[in-house]
Specification:
single chain; about 120 residues; mainly alpha; 6 helices; globular
């Protein structure tokens, strides 16, 4: 992994690379958190997004979505991934799971979970 100590970060995460880089200083602490930490943080971020939407603050809601992406990236960090592996996983998942299958995915969530 490229860190501040051994060189500049790469750009494998495109526009999300700055989110990854911003959290690099807390890498060790993040990797030591229990999985339940991330679940709770996601719940908090969704609550905050809903509050922004309830007060017609779309920009605030958009920032909370960016925070959700940040949490997802830190989950990938927690799982031991670096930006290059995340980029490859995302490309692979999009191609092999999502492309031409999004309607079926939505149907699955509706039929199995009622959402």
């Amino acid at each position: 992994m490229i860190t501040a100590e051994n060189g500049p970060a790469n750009e494998d995460l495109g526009p999300f690379q700055p989110l990854w880089d911003a959290w690099e200083e807390s890498h060790r602490e993040i990797t030591e958190k229990p999985l339940s930490h991330f679940r709770r943080v996601l719940e908090i971020q969704f609550d905050e997004m809903e509050a922004h939407l309830a007060s017609d603050n779309r920009k605030g809601a958009e920032y909370e979505v960016i925070d959700l992406i940040s949490v997802a990236l830190n989950l990938m960090r927690w799982l031991g991934n670096d930006p290059a592996s995340i980029g490859e996983l995302a490309r692979s998942r999009a191609e092999n799971r999502m492309r031409n299958r999004t309607a079926a995915i939505l149907d699955k969530y509706q039929s199995r979970y009622g959402v």
